[in-house]
Amino acid sequence: MKKIEAIVQPSRMESVKEALVELGISGMTISEVRGHGRQKGHTEVYRGNEYTVDLLPKMKFEIVLPDAMLDTAIEAILRSAKTGKIGDGKIFVSTVEDAIRIRNLERGEKAI
Amino acid sequence: MRKTALGALLCLIVFFGLSLAANAQTPSSPAAASPQVERHLSDLDQQTHQAQTSGDNAWMLTSAALVLMMTGPGLALFYGGLVRSKNVLGTMMQSFTLMALITVLWAIVGYSLCFHSGSPFLGGLGYFGLHGVGAAPDPDYAATIPQQTFMMFQLMFAIITPALITGAFAERMKFSALVLFMILWSLIVYDPMAHMVWGKGGLLNATLGGRFPTLDFAGGTVVHITSGVSALVTALYLGKRVGFPKQPMPPHSVVLSFIGACLLWVGWFGFNAGSALAAGSLATSAFVATHFAAAAAALGWALAEWIRNGKPSVLGAISGSVAGLVAITPASGFVSPMPALLIGAVAGVVCYFMVARVKGKFGYDDSLDAFGVHGIGGTLGALLTGVFATSLVNPVFKDAQGNALPVGLIDGHGGQVLNQLIAVLISWGIAIVGTLVILKIVDLVIGLRVSEQDEIDGLDLSQHGEEGYNFEA
What we know:
heterodimer; A: alpha+beta; four-stranded antiparallel β-sheet; two-stranded antiparallel sheet; 2 helices; 6 strands; 37% strand; B: mainly alpha; Ammonium transporter fold; globular
C-alpha cells in the first residue's frame, strides 16, 4: 500500500477530487493547509503598515491506495492539479505498513 | 375651517384696533380686546409652541439614539475589527462599558459639572442627581425641547468621547485600570472642557458669555481634540504592545471595521445635525456639511493611498470617511457645502499622512490611530472652522440691534481663527496635563497594563474569561 500526499492549489481542489473519484478512489482526506515553497507571498498594507504574507493557503489530499493504482492516481492528480504556474504544489509518496478499519477490524488493502 | 377664518378675522380686527389705539395715543390697553379673542390667541400660541416642541423633540430623541449607536455598535465594531482576534471582545467591552459607566456618572454629577452655571472652567453642582432637570426646557441651551432631552443628547457625547481613546491603548490595558481611568478622565478632562465650550458662562462659549468665543458646533475641541490628544499621551505612557513593531499585527477583520465605520457615518448625522438642538434649517445645513465632508475625505484618503501604494484600500477609504467626519464636526453648523467638501478632502489627505507616514517615523504605538484621526482631524477642523464659518449659514454673532456680524475669516472676521487657536491650545493643554495626572494615579493605585503573559493570551481570555470566536462550539 502506498500513501499519496498531494498539496495543490485551492482552486484545483474540485477537479483533483473528481479525477480521483473517476478512478474509483473513494477514500480520501482533504485538509486546508498553509505553507510556502518557491511561490513568494504577497504584501498587505493596513494604514501604511506593510505585512508580508508568505504562508499561502493550499489544499492537502491524503490518499492510501493499493500499489497497483499508484501510477494512475499520480497521473490523474498531475493532470487535474496543474496550472503551469509557480505554486501548483507537490506530491509525496510513501509506503504504508498497515491499515485498519475501526468498525470491523478489517486490515490491509481491504480496509482502505 | 370656519373657526380658523373667524380667528384670523378677529386677529386682524384686534391688530388694527391696537394700531389705531397706539396711533391715537389714547390710554386704552390691549385688554380692551374681548376675553374670547384673548383666550383664542393664547390657545393658538400654545398650540404652535407644542407643535414645535413635538417636531424638535422627535428629532432630538432620534439624534440622541443615533449618537449612542456610534459607540455601540459603531465604534465597538470599527475598533473590534482592527485588533487581533484574541482581543476582539476586550476591545468591544471597553466601548460598551463606557455606555454604562458614563451614564451613571452623568446622572449623578457629570451633567451638572458640564451644564449648570458655575465658574468659567467648570459647572456647578446645581443639577446634582439631575435635580430640577425635567420636562421644562432650558431656554439658554434649547428653548423648544425638554431639558431631559438635551441632557440625554449630551450624555451620548460624554460616552463616545472617552470610548475614542480606547483605540490608543488597545490590546494591553487592564480592564480594572480602564474603569478607574475613564471615571477620572470624564470628570477631570471632559466635564471642564464641555463646560468651557458649551456651558453657560464657560470660558470659550460663543453665545453664553465666554471670554474667547469659540465656534465648536458638535465637539471638535470638546470631543475629538480631548480624546485624540489624550490617546497620544496614553499610548506614549503605556508603551508599545509586546512584539510591536516587529511582529505583524494586522486587523483581524476589516469586515467588522467596515460595518462599524458605516454605522459611525450614519450616526454622525445625529451627532452634527442634532447639535442644532432643533429640527430646523440649521440641522439640514449641518447634515449636508457632515455628509459632504465624509465623502470628500473618503476619496482623499483612498486617493493618497492609491498614489503612494498603488492600491486604494477599504480600510483607507473608511478611515478617511471617519477623519472627514471628525474634521467637519466643529464646522458642521457654520459652513456652506463647498467649504465642507474642502475640509473633508484636506482632512482625508492630512490624516492619511499622519497615520501612514508620520506615526511610523516617531514609532509610538497608537494602536488604532485615535490620535492620527481624532487628534489631528479635530485640530484641523477646529482651525478651519474659524476660516470658513459664515453668517449666511449661522448668524451666531450679533450686534446689540440683532444684526448678524461676520463670523469666520471668509466673512472678514480674521480674529475668529485666533479664538479657535486659543481653544485648540486649551483643549490640548487640558488633555495632556489631565491625562498624565490620571495615568499616574491609576498606575500607582491599580497598574495600567496587563501582565506580559496576559497580553500574549489576549484580553478576551485574560480580562473577561471568554473568546470572541469559539470554533468548537
